[in-house]
Amino acid sequence: MTEATSGQVSVKRGEAQSFIHYSSILIPGFLQTADYARAVIGAGPFDAEEVERRVSHRLERQKVLFKPVRPRYRLILDEAVLRRPIGGSAAMATQIRWLIDMANQPNITIHVIPFRHGYYELSSSFSILEFPTLPCLIYVENGNASGFPDAPVDTDRYVETAGRLMRVALDSADSVEFLARMAADHERG
């Protein structure tokens, strides 16, 4: 498992009891299919062997969502993530169908913020990891920079942002219907 360090707290991602993830750019690694991950990682400066190694590692990390005691995983996606045909239309349709399957897991919920909502407070991609006995841990990604803001004011701000994003996103059932329409669009494309 990946180890994260924030201030004086060192934890393994597999110890989190809950994850909230927001993305306006990509489907997060925890829910990527192999073809989608290959397209994302392959866009970087890696040779084919390194791409395959990284894809394999990414898929291995996903197993944390299917352990006997599963963490809760809540994903909030901007519609743009679903429209961008990463890996091509067929790979994107397969990716979105995989998201629908994952949304049917008891520990996974997916929420989409559709374009029709209009403007909302856009944010960098971020994750909130919640632990049974430790304060939550925030992980922020923005372009080539990433980090763990750990000041209480920063932590509170990301928790509040996640709450606001959930209020503008479709509920889980409506999001699954939306995902099905997006998959059909890619299948026609």
Topology overview:
Elements (H helix, E strand, L loop, with lengths): L2 E4 L2 E4 L5 E6 L10 H9 L5 H14 L10 E7 H5 L5 H15 L4 E6 L11 E6 L6 E6 L2 E3 L4 H17 L3 H17 L1
Parallel strand pairs: 3-4, 4-5
Antiparallel strand pairs: 1-2, 3-6, 6-7, 7-8
Helix pairs in contact: 1-2, 4-6
Portion of residues in beta strands equals: 15-25%
Number of strands: 8
Strand-and-helix sequence, N→C? EEEHHEHHEEEEHH
Measured as a percent range, the helix fraction is: 40-55%
Strand order of the largest sheet: 5-4-3-6-7-8
| Secondary structure tally, helices | 6
- The Cα radius of gyration reads 16 Å
Supply the helix-strand structural class: alpha/beta
Poorly predicted residue ranges? 5-11
| Main sheet summary | 6 strands, mixed
Mean pLDDT: 90
Report the end-to-end length measured between terminal Cα atoms.
38 Å
Shape: globular
Question: How do you describe this structure in short?
Answer:
With 189 residues, the protein is of the alpha/beta class.
Describe the structure.
This protein is of the alpha/beta class. It is built from six helices and eight strands, in the order E-E-E-H-H-E-H-H-E-E-E-E-H-H. A hairpin with a 2-residue loop joins strand 7 (137-142) and strand 8. Residues 5-11 have low confidence and may be disordered.
